[in-house]
Amino acid sequence: MPENPLGFLDFFSNNLYNRLHPLEGRKKKEWSNVQQKKRSLRAVLAALMAVVMLVALAPAAFAAEAGQKQITIIGTSDVHGNIWGYSYENNKETSDGLARVYTYVQQVRAQNPNTVLVDAGDSIQGTIMTDDLYSSSNADHPVIAAMNAMGYDAWTLGNHEFNFGLDNLKTVMAQAKFPVLAANITYKSTGKLFTGAAYTIVERSGVKIAIIGVDTPNIPTWDGAKVDQLTFAPMAAAVKSCIKEIGSKADIIMVCAHAGLTGEFTDQNNADAAQAILDANPEVDVLQVGHYHTTIAQKEGSVVVGGVKNGAPEVARFDLTLNASNQIVDTSVSTVSMKDYEPSSVIRSLPAVKTAHEKTIAYVNDNVLGTSAAKFQPANEIKGIPAGKLQDSAVMDLINKVQLENSGADVSAAALFSDTSDIPAGNLTYANIFNIYKFTNVLYKIQVTGAQLKAYMEWSAACYNQWKPGDVSISFNPDKPGYLYDMFAGVNYEIDLSQPAGSRIKNVTFKGAALKDDQTLTLAVNDYRFSSGLKANHIVPADTQKLWESSESIRDMLVAYLKKNSPIQPSVDNNWKITGVDLQTSSADRAKLVSMVNSGVLAVPYNKSLNLTDDAGVLAMLNNASVNGKSCTVASMKAADGATYYRLRDLAIALKGTGAAFNVTWKDGVVVTTGTAYADDALPLTTDTAYTMTPITLTVNGKAVKMTTLSLAKNNYVSAAQLAQLVGSYGVSASEKSGVLTVTAK
């Protein structure tokens, strides 16, 4: 409590106001308005200065107000059925999944009992276990069994929860021992909430946290008749209604939105954008987003916003500090990787989880569907750049062939959903089919004009970056995920990457003749692409109807084809190709860059092409250092003063095995320890050039050493003289000649 009476008056008026107006009092976005009201209240209290005389009677009460509380909220999203941390299509353990999440959650709960656990949807779909064994089962759902055991406080539905119909979803929801939320989903006939709950309020140490759940309103676009009983309202309006109902009953307002910050479709008026929730509802303190499978940890004003990748490789962590009046005084958000946490035996030993896991492995491995005569995908020339998206491949020709045969359409379109999808030589199981087609799509046949088909092909080709002079590799548009890239069969065509998106499709022919814009033909396309691709992007009119719909999934069609035609042979008709590029495949410098990528020295050029001009600095780093006569590559940067600086991490690696070996860590500042080898992993060379000269204090063998280092891409670079200063006591000499750093060490 302040020592002077006027200070006490400030303290008293602030606390009284915030108790009377708990939502408004804690919002920074309304801070100036709040302060004006507090000043008015303070003026009224000034007339009652006699109250100050009671201060001697209240020290204990106000001391209690000084105590702070820490609330931690852990958010998962887009788990997509990954409990165990296992790839059933590859028969391999992975470094993600709910079992690892639970290990982390237990640690956090032990450190802070005021921990809340929530999920933002797309939980019960996405693996062979969930989609093929439990999508129509009334048995205990393994995902819900795991979530029950983990003690979730709330689960917000995602769009993929509706993939298997409402009856299945109702069965699954009934098994949950925690609230299931969807504030914007109601029955058309009654107006009642589909889940029965729009929000829930949980309490930790007297702090009440309201959790509001909303789902993307685009679900009818994808699931059509499966959800025709329901209405999907704009998310922001649903959140506003909840906040009004909650009133002063909560100290923290959290929204779990199964949606990205930006909207998916241009005609939704931001109904599907989580950003609209924040714009319309300044009362929100915490926003968890999902659906887009991207890592987000940021602040928008005072609001903490977090999102995670799919499959539970990470969680979003929100930390909020509140004062004794339950006002938020500090917040932070981060994402935490699960790869270093051991899977919980508690989760893996749950009967529903263990049984489901074992049944799925048996389902995959004990049923040989057929055989393949050879590998189907071409080998990647550049690590991480899928050759199957740079040229026609046997995998895509197989999928499109099956779609054409089943639909009787003239043209077929399909995507390579994963860059690593392939059919190997030898026995094939259900895992191999899942690997090339992981979704439960059904197939439509629709009628399109030549102009509409070309527009569809242009939309797909926007997944590439435009080629520019000097590019020696093809890269992909970071704003267009790979699963949106469809390849076509039944027509021949070229993709001219020298042109901007929208003007790339050239020389389209159908049955040997140029395709006319007014020509009519039929197209085989999956249900998801028809709605969210063709209709949503106005490639075909909104009232376009399907001519035919398959009674089974495309995946089931592939299984049937394999059983009938085994052994299958890879076959490629090369009906499309990329043009308008000069990759200089005979260039020695290109070969060097490709080699650096393939050896891990240079990062995979997925979203930015290798370019002989842009990457000239990287080429100069080849063999730019020598340690005891042995050449090596060290990331370096020439500064404005003419001196060259070398990445400290790379120098530590280069000096391994010598008497001057040293370790460097960054946990508590930059700490150098001589006499022990560097223990961490190498980093790829960077093509960044924006550096700063930063004065820092390093700790070298426990002693402080001040120097100005070059900072580039959050890495420390030192000069030859500075290297000698750090480890020179071990007999290191370092010099530069002809652009080569020469280090001699004992």
Write the layout of secondary structure elements.
Blueprint: H1 5-20, H2 22-25, H3 31-46, H4 59-65, E1 69-76, E2 86-87, E3 92-93, H5 98-111, E4 115-119, H6 128-133, H7 142-150, E5 154-156, H8 166-174, E6 180-181, E7 185-187, E8 199-204, E9 207-215, H9 219-223, E10 230-232, H10 235-246, E11 252-258, H11 274-280, E12 286-289, E13 296-300, E14 303-307, E15 314-322, E16 328-337, H12 345-348, H13 351-365, E17 368-372, H14 394-407, E18 411-415, E19 426-429, H15 430-436, E20 442-449, H16 450-461, E21 486-489, E22 492-496, E23 505-510, E24 513-514, E25 520-526, H17 527-535, E26 548-553, H18 554-565, E27 576-579, H19 588-598, H20 616-620, E28 625-627, E29 630-632, E30 636-638, E31 644-647, H21 648-654, E32 662-665, E33 671-674, E34 691-700, E35 703-712, E36 715-718, H22 720-727, E37 733-737, E38 740-744
Parallel strand pairs: 1-4, 4-5, 5-6, 9-11, 11-12, 12-14, 18-25, 22-27, 28-38, 33-34
Antiparallel strand pairs: 1-15, 2-3, 7-10, 8-9, 13-14, 15-16, 17-19, 18-21, 20-25, 20-26, 22-23, 23-24, 28-29, 30-31, 31-36, 32-33, 34-35, 35-36, 37-38
